[in-house]
Each structure stands twice: as C-alpha cells, then as structure tokens.
TrEMBL record, chains A, B, C:
Name assigned to this protein: Glutelin type-A 1
Organism: Apostasia shenzhenica
Encoding gene, per UniProt annotation: GLUA1
Assembly and interaction partners: Hexamer; each subunit is composed of an acidic and a basic chain derived from a single precursor and linked by a disulfide bond.
Stored CDD domains: cupin_11S_legumin_C, cupin_11S_legumin_N
UniProt keyword list: Disulfide bond, Seed storage protein, Signal, Storage protein
Pfam families with a match to the protein in the record: Cupin_1
Domain Cupin type-1: 44-218, 289-438
Superkingdom of source: Eukaryota
InterPro entries reported in the protein's UniProt record: 11S_seedstore_pln (IPR006044), Cupin_1 (IPR006045), RmlC-like_jellyroll (IPR014710), RmlC_Cupin_sf (IPR011051), Seed_Storage-Functional (IPR050253)
One GO term (biological process): seed development
Leader sequence residues: 1-23
Length: 467, 467, 467
C-alpha cells in the first residue's frame, strides 16, 4: 500500500457528515466574499513575496506568507507552504476557510500514477490540486521516499467563514505555531502556540464524553512539542476492508470524473460494519484533480507552453469552495497575451523558473513590472491587466483564483478583445490609419493565449477578412 | 375559534407580494453574511447573557439582549424576548432582518395541537419555530389564557438586509422603544421612541394616499402610549371565508409538510373576492414547524435525552432565510459529544434547567467553562469545539444557527471524527499505545451525539474490528 | 445602417468569453452586497442630488454623482450621466461593477424602433435599459443626429466586485478623468487622469504580445487628450457578415424575449470564420429591454400614470447582475400608495417633471419631505416607507434597485398591507371605531399602486365584505 519508492501522501477527509449536506452547495453555505473592505487598499506596488514566518515540526517545515501583507490582505487570502518528510504525518486539523492545495516537488516534473484509491484515503500526487472545505477535518501522510511540498491557498473572505478574515487552524492533535500581529495571530505577540482542541477541556468531562478513563484523557491532554507534523517511525499501518481493491476498480471505470458529483447525491456506503446493525456511510465527493499533464491541457502551443484550468465544471466541489486554479507553463522567452481576470483575483505561485510580469491598474499605471521567480507569490487583482514573459529557463506556475468559474479576458489572439473590435473602432480609438488598425487587430490572429518567442514578426500582415 | 383554555396565538403574515417572489429563494435575495468584520473580534471570554433592556407595553414586556455585546455583535445576531399577555395583540411591524422565533411557556412542556388553520392566520403553538423573512409585515395575537413567551433571533448580517448591521423594527402602528448606543438604537441617547410609519407623513398626503378624510388620517397619526403590544379587551374578532374549515382539512391531508414548497410555486388562491372581477391571491409558504415532540426527534437516546434539527430540508423557507434551529433536551447528568459547528455560529438559549458548557477556541484555550441556566443565552462561534453536560435538573435549549443547513461535526460516537481516524493515526497523534488508541477511538462506539450519565465505563473495552 | 434621422447608438459587448460562462449565473460569481458597513450610516436627511463632477471629452460630457455622498456611499452605488454627441464613440472600457444604464433624451418621450440588430452590436434605443456585467469590455456609438443621454448606475458592493467599493473604469483606449477624494478617485488629488491599459506596458513587450512592430506599439501608447468619447468625423464604418439580416429576423421571431436565456445555454455561433478551421463563437445573452412603452406597463391607471418593472424574470441577465429597474410615470397631481422596498435599495432618477417625495425611516421620522425634479437623484433605503405625489407638470422617473427581484410592499390599494389586515386589527391598532377602520382598510380598495388626483373622496364608503 505505502509504496516506498513513489512520492505520494495520503489524505483522510473525515466526511462523516451526511453526504447530502456537502453535495448541496447551496445548503452547505454559499461562499461570498467582500474584499478590500474595512480599509481601502492602495495596490500601488505589487511585488513577488516569499514566506515570512517559518516553524519546524518533527516531520517537516511550515512556511507562512505574511497575512498582514497588503497584497494578501487586500485579496483576503492566506497562503502556507508545507514540506512534509517521508514517513511524516500532518496531524488531524481543520480550518475556518476553504482551501486549495497544490502538491509538488522542487526540481521534478513527472507525476506518477498510483494504483490505490480508497474512499476515505486519497492519494495526493504531485501535480494534484486538492480541495478542502472549511471546517472539515483531515490529515496527510507522506508514504513516499522524498519530501513533499504543498502550497495551500485559503480564501479568508469566503462566506462560509463566519469568523474574522484570518486563517485559523483548529488542531485535533499536536501544536500549531502562530506568529505576526493580526487576528488569531495574537495581537502584539510574536510567537504563540495553539494547542489541540482536547487540551483545555476539563479532564473529567473529556473522559466522560469520549468514554475513556481519566488517566487516558490526561494522556491525550499532555503537552506535545512535535508541532503539526510528526514522524511515524515504523510507517503508518492502515487496515482496509477486503473489498477495497475491487471497489476502487469499479469506481474508476464506471464513474471516472463524475463520481464525486453523481454518486454523492445519494449516499455511497463503502465501509459496512455489522456491529449493532448500523452501517456507517462515507461520502466520496471528488476532492482532487491532477493539473500537471500537458497532454490534457486546455491550450497547448508548440514552442510556447500550455495552460490548464481547473474550474467547478471539472471538479464540482469547487462550486462549493468558490475557488479555482490554473496550471501554466511557458517555455523560454514565450509570452502571454495581455489579459485581465474578469471576476476573480489571481494569486500566482511560481513553481519553477523566472518570468517578467507586468500588471497595470485602472489608472493605466504599472503596479508591477519586474521579475518573479521560483518560490515567489504575486497577487494580481481583479480587472488589472497583466502580461507574463518567460526568461530563458522558462516559467511554470500555479494560479489560485477567487471564483470557481474564473474568467479571463484575453486582449490578443483568437477570441480576444481586439478580434472583437471592428477595424474602424480600433482606428478611431488609437488614431491609427486603417492598415495599422488592421495590424493591431490581427497581429496575433493565429495564436491563443500564449505565443512563442520572436514569432510576432512572421505572423504580421497576413490577409484576413475584416469582421 | 379563540379557545380560551388553550395556549395559542395568531400570526398574520401579510404576504401580499406575489407568491412566486417568495418562493424563489434566489430571486428574493440570497442571504449572505460577513461576520466579525469592521472590527476584529476578541472572543476570549464567552459568558451566559441575560436581556439588558426592557420595556413594557400595554399587553406585554419586551426584553432585548444587548446588541452591543461582543458576543452578539461578533456573531451579527440580535435577540429579543417577548412576553405577550392573553388577549394581547403585537401590532403590525416588519424588520430589516430575517428572524426565527421559538414560542414557549416557562415551566410547561406539553404542546397542544389546535384545529384551526388559515392561509393568512397561522397558529403559533408552544414549541413552534416561526420563520419570518426580512421586510414582511406581521402581527401576533394571544388567544390563549396564559402569557406566551417568544424568543426571537434575527440575523443582522443577512445579505437581504442592505441596511446597517443592527436590528431595525418598522412599526405600522403603535410605538417601539429603543435603547443603547448602537445603530438605530439612537447614538448616545438612552431612550428613544420609534413611531409607526404613518405618523410623520404629511396629513393631507396620507389622507389622499389612503383614500380617507384628513380627520381620519389625523386620528391615525395620534401619539400612542401603548407600546408595541396592546390589549384587545373584548377579544379579537376575525371573520373567515366560509370554506376555510374544509380548505384547511384538505391542505393538511393532501400537502402536509410539502405544502409550502409545492403549492406556492404556482399560486394558491384561498380568498376569492368577486369585487371588480379581480381575485386576490395569498401565498401559503409554510412558515412554522414544531420542534418540541421527542417522538419526532432526530436522535433519541433513552436516559440521555433527544435532539431535533430544523433545517431547510424540513422547512424550505429556511433556505431563503439561511437560518436553522435545533431543539435539545439533556436529562440529568447526561453529556454531549465534543463537537464543532462546521459552517455556522450557534446561539444557545436555555429554556429550562442548568448545564455546564465548555467551549474551546482555535488556540486550544477554553473561552467558556461554566454553567448556563434557564433564560440565558450563549454564543458559540463557528468551529469552536464545545461540550455540554446537564446538571441534576436537566438541560433544555433551543439553538439558532446562522446557516440553513448547519452541520455539526461530532468528535465521539458513531459517525464521528474519532471513528473516522485509523487506530494508528490516533496512536501517533496522541503518542498512545495501540490498545489505548483503540479505547479512544471506540470509547463511545455505541452512542450518537448524546450519552447518558456515567455510562462510559460500562461501554469501554468492547470488541470491535479495526477500521 | 447608421440612420442619421433616428436617435440610436450602438453597443459592442466583447463577449468573447465562453458563452456558457456568462450564462451560469452562479459560476460567474454571485453578487452579494453588504451595505452600510465600515461606517455606520446616518440617513437622517436624504436629498435630491445633482452630479458633482463633470469633465468634457471630444464627443461628449461625463457627469459624475458624488460617490462620497452619504446617500450613495451608504447604498453602495455609483451613478454617472453621459451625453454623447452624434457621431460620438464611447471608447472601449470595462468596470469592476455590474451596471444598468437607461438611455433617454431630454424633452422627448417617443422611442423609435429600429430595424438592425446584430449579435455583437446592439442598438440601444431611447427608453432601453442596458445591462453590463462587471469586467466585460464594451463601446458605444451614437449613430443618430441628436445627443443621447445615458444614466448609468453601478452596484459597487456587488460580490462580483472583489476590489474596493468604488467604481473603477478600466479604459482600453482614451483617457478617463477622475476627481474627488475617495478610492480610485485619487486621495487628496482634485484631478487625475486615468490612462488606458496599454499605455504603461513596456513597449517592446506590448509589441511582442500583440504581434506588432515597436513603432506601432509606441503609437498606441501615445498620450490622448480626447477623453473617453471621441468624434468619428466621417461616421463609423462597420462591416457585417452577409447572413446578418436574416439571422436577426430569425432571432427576433423565434426567440423573442427568451433568446438570451435559451440560446446562450448552449452556444450560438453567428460569426463563422474558416481561417484555420476554427470557428469563433459569440454569445448573445440578451442585455437590453425597453421599458418606455405604456402599452406594456405592469400597472396602467387612466388619469394616474403607469409603472413597468424590469426584473430578472423578464431579462435573465439581471439574475447575474442582481439588479433591476422600474420605469414610472405619474400624471399631474397623481399619487402613489405609501410603500416600502422589501429587499432592495431604490435609487430614483427623475427623467422629467417634479414631484413631492416623502420618506419615513424606522423611527417614524421623515428623512425626506420635499420636491425632486428632472435631473435629480434620490436614494430611498430598503424598508423606509415612501410616497410620491406628482406636481402639475407630472413626474417621470427610472428607479434602479439593488436586487434582481426587488419587491415592493404597497400599503394601500388592492393586494396591499391594509387589505390584508382584519378590520378588528386595524381598529385596535389605531384605536378607531370599526366603521373608521373599515374606511382605512378599504379607502383605496379599487386602486393598485398609483391613484389619480382627488379621486379619494369619491371612492370612500363603498360596501365591501369584511375579510
């Protein structure tokens, strides 16, 4: 089960809530965001960010991007990067915000498909996006032989979060370290430890509630210096019901991408216990999707790169989380069309390489014009016009977006803004001669979204009918 | 009609808006909340609250919980308790927030089923939850022979409320008294009277608009010292259309619990007037549901108590209000599982008895650890882990929740968090030997949600297969 | 095409986004508003407003109502009035908020039906409401021979707007002038120019991205003093695909009012280009509706006037924008019923005449009691009770409402609050004799919504059955 030669880790989602609840996105609670409120955001200067806080656990490292930073605060997002050692267990926890996580390993590009899947315990592979609803407890385990890195993005202004606009992590075991000055990050304090939920209950009450002895309750309440990730020296032992293998086969074949949305509307019972004649039903809403495969890209441009969008249409749970993601790869010196995000903020995290990114605000001023590189984060606000050009080592990124059906408006290329403008409007708008307006409109007539290096000149001047 | 030996009161909902409007939850306006905004909430200490303001009307008493209190302000809820004397009429009014009311009588537990029902005039019985949308005018009348108490909970951060986050009561007759320092409660002023809407219109214009003489308009505008509840000395005379009795029978039988959602999608005409050939259609969206009957509980545990949830699945109008409620009864010394509310705040009002309530925040610190008793209110924030143990007199409560499909995550018992964790994860999470992890996981294996007193020891150590 | 004798202007909506995206209102992003937050609004005095800022472009005038004004800020709306000269082109732009625009010409009342329609280029006629989603680029052109006036209303607290609660206009060409002290209106600065998006990009990168020469990129980036509306001296030349005329006919006939919602769910391809074998699909979600025709009014009362509501039921795109509008005409001395808006703010813009408007708040105090006249704007907050009486020249207005299914609760007339109250409740509420309560209840028994001048006395005292 735990293949020591492959890079995976497990996730358990404790979906012990009635399946129907989670399947009902409306009933679950619509996510609503209200950003830039309370204070007015002056996004005059954006910049590539790196994590500000860091703490070590027994089995890994937690790096937190500064939630007080203007960019993250204005966009109402919280970003954490975790590195989990092999045999490391991220302890059970939940948070007040929905989140998307992207798993990867620095310096490697291949994802490996693994065989095992179980309704409660998911394999989270490199290149997977993992969607976790607010308030749902989960744990992770790295069964591979290499450290795994996960960048996790939380939407603190999600309407499901009825607490304040910070990221709060509720531990069910272990300890979390908090720093900074904002919200739950402890006003004024530089460091504070967050203990797990059981620690402060009256020991007698806790024993009674859990049906255990006071001594055992006390043991649970002991101080734990191991942090939020602990080593499982001898490897985690998991016992599965006998029918697991077959069940998985059947699921994969019969339901594929629709399993989450179809099956979960009713209830799927996969673990059947005969004790007391009561059967426990688990929910298998699909929570992950791989976005690392160029062969399944939405846009693939030879010599330029590829883009893959993951929206609620492909992963229905995103309709509940109101978040989506895009994976992008630009080859050396390739460039994107100028574009804006119609209905979402876009948080770019660079997984490899370097690129030059320009962002222009509503006043037509560049609020970012520089390089961002591997490990850095950039917030591109809604409607701001942006453009990326890869440096020689290429540019690979994952974008998290604050809308489950985020829409981009491309300015150049097929199905773009310029293509929708009559030539005479272009001419009058920019005071150009008609032939120049024609060039502006059709300069990238053949391209879609991303363009290879130095190809622009060749494509100029081709004959097109005026639309 | 007005049975003097039974405890009822009437409610008229002036649903003169097109039925279709209310039936369309999306069109009506989605509720959206954004809590804890504007200022950051420090919920370091929760405590049982009692009403702070009180004013007397001719026919009853209005008691208002302090809207400025940290707990209520952070949760963005407003709570009012009213006691209406027999023959008392709560004058027509509406508010800027949706609300749920729970009717009860101190010291009595039996609800009585009454025969009469009319599409405009509902019987609101003891143990009923009554749902009132924002902006919809209504009145109540106590046709019984004992005072009736109603605790009303309003969601001031409902997105239907586009005014500020306070409770505003718009009277169509009578006077409302406001106190305190916040919002409409009159900055700085200690007391202020709110008059009904007709009072300040130009008398001539009002007469003209209503089609009455200026003298009569003037009479309507007179000062009224009776407050918001007035005595109807000789009893309220209501005249019903002849077919009412039959209509009711038919409705009850044919539509039952689905009447609100099914029939209202079209339009149900129950009062037909032939004047001018125009028929006035009234809407009968179901607005109430009784939650006081242990026989209809969701969870019933002998010697421990029972729980009944009222969500939008049972009462569809709650899908518009985005609120739900739970009725709970714990017998002497019974205890709940530790649990958290996944997607809602939970406002607990104790209707009888005393209980010890512990609440733990994201830092693992107890923000409440004490007794709350009959007549007190406690706000339990979303995701905070809580636990209730009844004292010897038992503990009965009603919880209002800020989500129409509020979900609880139980920690112990069947279908709980602990049951979902593999034994080896429990062992590694708490550094326990496997046999102790087994006890933690299965200590409450037989129970669901609430457990009887001192039963924990007996249930320990039973043989269970490891999952 | 460009009929010089008729008053029209064109709109191009660059709906180059996948149609399905816009058709999915939920996926597009639900609009959510939270008004009156951040600061508490003291709406003690409302008043008719006129535009505060004004700037001239080559082809017209832009007049901006003060976004910092208490009324507009509390209601979270932004209002701009534009006058576009004949042959004037409003340059391509988009904004961070959804908006409704109403087109009219001062002093004229007749709208003219024009023949041409194209899926990309809409005719925006006098009396049309035009709905524009946030982040969608568009341009307008006045092909008529008279100046056209458009009053545009934006919902700055729309949840689709994830930027701050101001109106931000992103130009794709030309220049926008901003004034005032709030948000993007440049803190402290009195005047600032907003340039178009292309201006600040690195010239080399821009050329490369658009596939044009650096010289041409430089030309696009030139400073442009013409503002946001420019003259097209020789008239705009638009070339249409051959099948346009027929296509339009077919659409008009076959789909009528349902075209937007039905056809757009799939995808409608109307411009088919064979280049590269790829077909570009355009979306024809219906974006406009005429509300100027008394024959299609919802309420038409001889000698009193008429009302027409435009909600998402009639124009489905409003369900995405979460906005609606009402057109109202009151003849000389006619009066409305007192009423309140149940679930929306109401922003009244007077297109002609004068009227006396009274507005009463939750304390029963008149917060507005005076005249408003042509060209003025009044914000009527949700739930506040209002009443309008036309002066001798009549009163014509358009109301924008912050809910796509805004509901009004009429107090007098058929299907009104008073009609829903039993006579005995009216009598006890206002301490009236039964015969007077009867008069109050039935004083406007025959009317609906608006009543002609001085007709009230005649209608008194008619015999009605008590309900």
């Amino acid at each position: 089960m735990a293949s020591s030669s492959s890079l995976i880790f497990f996730l358990l989602l404790l979906l012990l809530l009635p399946c129907v609840s989670l399947a009902q996105s409306v009933g679950y609670g619509e996510q609503r965001r209200l950003r830039f409120l309370g204070k007015e955001c002056q996004l005059d200067r954006l910049s590539g960010m790196q994590p500000r806080y860091r703490f070590e656990s027994e089995a890994g490292v937690t790096e937190i991007f500064d939630e007080d930073d203007q960019q993250l605060q204005c966009a109402s997002v919280s970003v954490i990067r975790r590195t989990l050692k092999p045999l490391g267990l991220f302890l059970p926890a939940f948070s007040n915000n929905p989140s998307l996580s992207f798993g990867f390993e620095h310096g490697r590009g291949q994802s490996e498909r693994l065989g095992d899947e179980h309704q409660k315990i998911l394999h989270f592979r490199q290149g997977d996006i993992l969607a976790i609803p607010a308030g749902v407890a989960h744990w992770w385990y790295n069964s591979g032989d290499r450290p795994l890195v996960a960048i996790s993005f939380s939407d603190t202004s999600s309407s499901v979060n009825q607490l304040d606009k910070t990221h709060r992590q509720f531990m069910l075991a272990g300890t979390y370290r908090k720093e900074g000055s904002r919200g739950s990050f402890g006003g004024g304090q530089q460091y504070s430890s967050s203990y797990h939920a059981f620690r402060s209950f009256d020991t007698r009450l806790l024993g009674e509630a859990l049906g255990i002895s006071q001594e055992l309750a006390q043991e649970i309440q002991r101080e734990d210096p191991r942090g939020e990730m602990v080593m499982v020296r001898e490897g985690l032992k998991l016992v599965f019901p006998p029918s697991k293998e077959q069940l998985r086969e059947e699921e994969e074949e019969s339901y594929g991408g629709l399993r989450g949305s179809k099956r979960c509307e009713g209830e799927e019972e996969t673990i059947k216990r005969s004790s007391n004649g009561v059967r426990v039903a688990f929910c298998t809403a699909r929570l992950r999707e791989n976005i690392n495969d160029p062969r399944r890209a939405d846009i693939f441009v030879p010599h330029a790169g590829w883009l893959k969008k993951l929206t609620s249409q492909k992963l229905p749970i995103l309709g509940i989380l109101k978040l989506s993601a895009t994976r992008g790869v630009l080859h050396r010196q390739a460039i994107t069309s100028p574009l804006w995000n119609v209905n979402a903020h876009c948080i770019v995290y660079v997984t490899r390489g370097r690129g030059r990114v320009q962002v222009v605000n509503d006043e037509g001023r560049a609020v970012h014009s520089g390089e961002i590189r591997q490990g850095q984060l950039l917030v591109v606000p809604q409607n701001f016009v942006m453009l990326i050009k890869a440096e020689d080592e290429g540019f690979e990124w994952v974008s998290f977006k604050t809308n489950d059906n985020a829409i981009e408006s491309q300015i150049a290329g097929k199905a773009s803004v310029l293509r929708g403008l009559p030539v005479d409007v272009v001419a009058n708008a920019f005071r150009l001669r008609n032939e120049d307006a024609f060039k502006v409109k059709f300069g990238r007539a053949d391209g879609v979204g991303i363009f290879p290096a130095h190809s622009s000149q060749e494509e100029l001047g081709r004959p097109y009918a005026v639309v």
